[in-house]
Structure formats: structure tokens, C-alpha cells
Write a structure and sequence with these properties.
Elements (H helix, E strand, L loop, with lengths): L9 H14 L6 E6 L2 H8 L2 H7 L13 H12 L2 E6 L7 H12 L4
Parallel strand pairs: 1-2
Helix pairs in contact: 1-4
């Protein structure tokens, strides 16, 4: 599946992709998410989201966390599953990452 939104950012689309992918999986299952987004993978690997929640959704610079609405949706999806985060190198000729990149480019909304 793929999709797009007008007037958005790469980060919002990366978050939305993981949210929609997890939402499409029924039941409480172990899921491995492969992503070239350090923004997403590091958030979960390093526990950023836990600090954000504890700090009233402020980041380390005491500023509001960008894309809070999507982070909250993604956190809710991850709480319903056993998610393992796998960072993959972007643009490194990974077959599945190349497929996702092609789907994303095809879904660009002007």
C-alpha cells in the first residue's frame, strides 16, 4: 500500500507510513519494522518518546515535539504490538527499501 498528502513533509510521511503499516496488521503480533529513517528508529531505540511524554511533549531543547499528533498515533500502534526496529541504509541498494522508495515517489501529491 502507498499514499501521499499535499503540503506535507518527509518526516510526516515516514511516520504515516509506519502508522498505516502497523495498523494494517491485526492482533498482537511481533513485528519487525525496517526503516531508513533515523528519526523514527532512534526515537524508539533510544526512548525519546518516553522522555517526551514525561516532559509534557517537550524535546531536549524544551520546545514542543514536532509531529506530536503522528508520534502519539505511532506510539499507540506500537503499544499494541511487540515491535522490533531495524535501521536500514537509505539509497544503499536494499531491495525492499528501493521498493518502498519507488512507491513513495509514485504517490507524491503536488
Amino acid at each position: 500500500m502507498s499514499g501521499g498528502e499535499p503540503q506535507t513533509t518527509n518526516q510526516r510521511m515516514e511516520l504515516t507510513a509506519v502508522i498505516e503499516g502497523l495498523a494494517a496488521i491485526s492482533g498482537r503480533r511481533r513485528v519487525r519494522v525496517h526503516s531508513d529513517s533515523a528519526y523514527i528508529v532512534n526515537c524508539f531505540r533510544d526512548g525519546w518518546w518516553e522522555r517526551w511524554e514525561g516532559n509534557g511533549w517537550k524535546n531536549a531543547q524544551k520546545q514542543p515535539v514536532a509531529n506530536r499528533d503522528l508520534w502519539e498515533r505511532l506510539i499507540a500502534e506500537t503499544r499494541r504490538r511487540d515491535v522490533v526496529w531495524q535501521k536500514v541504509a537509505g539509497h544503499a541498494d536494499d531491495e525492499l527499501n528501493n521498493r518502498v522508495d519507488a512507491l513513495a515517489r509514485a504517490a507524491i501529491v503536488g
